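thought: fold this chain, then report.
action: predict
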Amino acid sequence: MDQPHPHGSRKPDRACSFLIPRLLEHFEHLDQQPALRFKSEGEYHDLSYRGLKSILFAVATGLMRLDLRPGDRSVILSNSCPDWVYADLGSLLAGAVTSAIYPSMPSTEIAFILKDLEARFLFVEDEEQLEKVIAIREDLPFLERVFVFRGKESYGEPWIMPLGNLLYVGSAPSRSEVQTIRDLAARTTEDQTLAVVYTGGAADTPKGVILTHGNYAATFAMVERHLGSFQGLDTTLSFLPLAHAFERLAGYYLVLFAGHTICYAEDPGNPIRSFRNANPHFAVAVPRFFEQIYHELILRSLRGPIWRKPLFEWSIRVGRKVRRSGLAPERLPMPLSLQYRLAEALTLRRIRSMFGNRLRFMISGSGPLNPAVIEFFHAAGVLILEGWGSTEATAPCTLNTPDHHRLGTVGRPLPEVEVRVGADKELEVRGPNMFTKYWNNPPATEAAFTADGFYKTGDLGEIDDQGWVRITERKRSIITMADGCKIAPAPIENALHAQAHIARAYIHGTNRDFLTALLELDEKMLQLSATREKVASCAPTVLARHPVIESLIRAEVARANAELPDHMQIRAYRIMERPFSVQAGELTPTQKLRHSVIERRYKPLFDSMYA
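observation:
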């Protein structure tokens, strides 16, 4: 029997196809095919693979002329944009190890990551991010150069340089410099580090996950086999932060590896506006994106004539009935066919058109998505496929596919990925996509793996006899009540999130006799309800305390409780004065709640509900 590779990263029995060598092939053969599409000065522009090659070779040559050596760490502090790609791939072509920092991170975490990596080179988006770096410059003895994507033409400091200047430094690479770049790519090995990706989890201290060229190559191959093909997925819309392992793989590396096109959202904070212009074949998103659109559509149904809401709900019911039937529209029985045509004309087609007219599917990852939200979009013909994984797994471990998907699951494991249920129902994973260690953190590495090399994911779940995986909760999120009863908060949160006015809920109850909640309200819905109920408009925090609005919220909490068993019902709640935020440390950059921060900060508020 084969012996497991230490810490679960068993080498696949095949020759890997690596990212950088594959890109060099594309530069020769795809030529004028668009690689990137982005909006500049009000117009969309395409950058061909030939144009991308020219920029990347200039970045790589410029870095090498500034003494970047293979294995040096090059870090990016920026929102997603084409410049991010130039910095990342240009650094990789020069033999660097790349990493990324979320722009929303505070200076303390930025300093920690840069010091942890001993980074010599840093790319920043603009002067706002540059100011953060200047403020901590004395704590960064290894940092030699900072390149600014958008800012001044000159900074009067030799260590700060506009990106355009780096391109100038690297312009017209010599034949020997080009050969050096090609030689570096040709010498790529499976065990060679490609990136150090810092976890955006709920832990207080980020951990750097070392991902190799072999990890990414194995993942590319496994995802392609799992989906069947990359054919028909020519364009994606990118709007998640590229510091996110999920987006970095599925919305970036995988797309360019396949020789396809990435279109960047004009406004990543409001990407739905970019879908029609980009007209993508697929896109990846996090649950919050789908939940916000769902609430926005519910909000629209409440505006206007009194008949709009019941007509909207009827259309969704018809769409749901059609999807559950499993029949193609042309094979529906006559009564349902007539209803479906009407529902299509009135509602469903309009929802689909928000995403363009070529969308085959969207992938949701980085957290659980309420099944009711998935079913809503499926009713409208927008296929959402849930997947599951972690940064440590180069992103995916399991994935639903267009041909094989099951509501309430995160799909089946990718080929060559082993998933099992371990102690306390924690899911454990092993495969060629798995990392082998954290950066500069042996204790965390040791704690992450079982004795036989499976990674302990921290997610609780179950696997049925057909291999479908269900996630029930994060292990650290389980609430242990005073009587020892253990409660997973996800079903409670889903029941509350399904209510029109509740945007987010935090469930509390550790060592308590009953459960309580902090509720974050949807401000748009709040204002609409105020108008409908003839309540004078005022600040949301004041509005939430108005007796009429309080009554609406009480009714919604009661409806959510009615769906839950008695021991999982919310007995008391408080309305948040402001939304949870990344800046306040209550959310991770990937929009996950930081339990330790919230429990500590809002302890007096929690105590008041038990007084």
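thought: worth noting. Residues 334-353 form the longest helix (20 residues).
final: tokens above.
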